[in-house]
Amino acid sequence: MSSPLVVIEHVKKSFVHEGRDVPILKDIDLRIDHGEMLCIVGPSGAGKSTLLHLLGTLDLPSEGSIYFEGDNITSYSSARLAEFRNHRIGFVFQFHHLLPEFTALENVTMPGRIRGEPLRELTARAQHLLEEVGLKERLTHRPGELSGGEQQRVALARALIMNPKLVLADEPTGNLDTNTGTAMHELLFRLNQTHGTTFLVVTHSQDLAHKMPRVVHMRDGRIETDERSGPGPTPFPERNGVAQPPSHERNG
Fold it and tell me: How far is CA 13 from CA 43, 96, 115, 216, 222, in A?
């Protein structure tokens, strides 16, 4: 079996509320391979978005470790985490968070501008990505001049501009109508095949979940089931009836 992209080991997350710890994630183990396309589903309060935020290094676990291509990113400094997040992770949220005063093209280049990359190269990459997501004629339009589906495609292009290994999408079609949401689903699959980018999607959409080759069900802060359809990596051994990855080998 090839080396995994991400390994999550015994991750717990709790928050303090009125002087007491409130557990949100309870001993999460998960392995994500390069180029995988998987989604996380479950009822509200299951811990889906919290897990996504930990994977995106927007927050740190209370206990446990997260490995990215063998490196324990939970041990990184805040400055190193910011660099890692900018270069290795792409984000697509339910609310696209586009900057209203900038054009679609300028919005897509923003992560590279933050990193200080040459504007000419960034602009060329951004234009190519916007054409790839079907917005060739919308390069100079501002978010207020775009439909909801078009805005979300701009956000998706922005997530891909730094060639990330992993794209995290939190309810990317939650504010879209059925037809536009279906088109976005198809686009995610096509980009996964074209770029080889790993996509992890948190969704309430049963339609999207049914199309995914791997579906992780969460409930009450735990992984309840981890289901694959069709051929895929060898299933993990089970612990308490739930598929678990092997313990990650640590260097040194």
Answer: 18, 26, 30, 18, 11
Q: Residue written as tokens 């092997």? A: 246
Contact of 144 with 69, CB cutoff 8 Å: no
pTM, two decimals, is 0.81
Contacts for 31 with CB less than 8 Å, ≥ 6 apart: 4, 6, 7, 8, 236, 245
Tell me the C-alpha distance between 191 and 195, whole Å: 6
Q: What is the largest CA-CA distance in the chain?
A: 54
Comparing CA positions, the residue from 50, 56, 53, 74 lying closest to residue 64 is 74
pLDDT given for residue 34 in this prediction:
93
**Among candidate residues 31, 36, 9, 11, the one with its CA nearest the CA of residue 166:** 36
In the chain the domains, ranked by start, together with CATH numbers, are: 34-62+77-240 (3.40.50.300)
Contacts of 232 (CB under 8 A, 6+ apart): 213, 214
Q: Which residues contact 5 (CB under 8 A, 6 or more apart)?
A: 32, 33, 34, 36, 68, 69, 165, 166, 198
* pLDDT tens-digit series, residues 161-202: 988 999 998 887 766 677 777 888 888 888 888 888 999 999
Residue 119: CB atoms within 10 Å = 13
Q: Is 25 helix (H, G, I), strand (E, B) or coil?
A: strand
Closest CA to 173 of 92, 104, 89, 55: 92
Specify the residue for token string 């209203």: 100
Which two three-digit tokens encode residue 177? 């109508």
Q: Which amino acid is at 70?
A: G
Extended strands (E) in 33-127: 37-41, 63-68, 71-72, 89-93
The bridge status of strand 89-93 relative to strand 242-243 is unpaired
